[in-house]
Amino acid sequence: MKKRAIVLLSGGLDSATCLAVAQRDGFECYTLSFDYGQRHKCELQASEKLAAAMGAVEHKTFKLDLRQWGGSALTDDNIAVPDGGGAGIPVTYVPARNLIFLSLATAWGEVLGAHDIFIGVNSVDYSGYPDCRAGFIAAFAEAARRGTCAVDENWHWSIHTPLQNLSKAEIIQLGTSLKVDYSLTTSCYNPDQAGRSCGKCDSCLLRHQGFIDAGVADPTVYQQ
Ligand code: ZN
């Protein structure tokens, strides 16, 4: 019997690649997206399409409203999405987002008997978010073990971060080798109503440069 895994799917390039890696590694994949009050729902539609196209066993979109307190350019209309550049943790950081998402993934995983979780965090070409770092992931796995039935039943959580040390270009090359259709993914912090990318935000700039460095044609549809 195949082992089950939960794969966090944001609709972006990284998480799509992460799903392809989980499939390659022989897991039966259950994909999980979050409708958390982000500015744009097109990433949720992208996640649904990716899950179906890539053969996930089941896809769930979990609703939780992080707009109740905002505090990020992605969840608060009073904070504008900046163009690329700048030092420090950017305003697109959503407070404790991966801590929340991983907690919910372990909850579903415990129900499914899926003790493997895939998350597309990355320390190389990232925007400096603390909840993408290896130290956090290791500490979370231990906290999850202690806070679930794992502690009494003597098993542990494996939090897989296959993209942790890859550059954006290497991620794109890996995904291309695994036949990921990147035209289904969306990475922009500020897409228009039609879901077209702005081409100017941090996420768009990293993504586009990644395609150039990887020598792969960028299938992203940009606004004029
Ligand atoms: Zn953008």
Structural class computed from helices and strand pairing = alpha/beta
Pick out the low-confidence regions.
Answer: none
Shape, please? Answer: globular
In round numbers, the mean pLDDT is: 92
Q: How large is the share of residues in beta strands?
A: 5-15%
Radius of gyration: 17 Å
| Count of helical regions | 7
Strand runs, count:
5
Give me some keywords for this one.
globular; 5 strands; 5-stranded parallel beta sheet; binds zinc ion; 224 residues
In short:
The chain is an alpha/beta fold and 224 residues long. The protein contains seven helices and five strands.
Please, could you describe this protein's structure?
There is one protein chain. With 224 residues, the chain is an alpha/beta fold. It contains 7 helices and 5 strands, in the order βαβαβαβααβαα. It has a 5-stranded parallel sheet with strand order 3-2-1-4-5, sandwiched between helices. α1 crosses α6 and α6 packs across α7. It is globular and about 55 Å long. It starts with a strand and ends in a 10-residue tail after the last helix. The mean pLDDT is 92. The structure holds zinc ion (ZN). The site of zinc ion has 9 residues, from α7.
Topology at a glance:
Layout: E1 4-8, H1 13-24, E2 28-35, H2 42-53, E3 58-63, H3 97-112, E4 116-118, H4 134-147, H5 150-153, E5 158-160, H6 168-177, H7 202-214
Parallel strand pairs: 1-2, 1-4, 2-3, 4-5
The chain binds zinc ion.
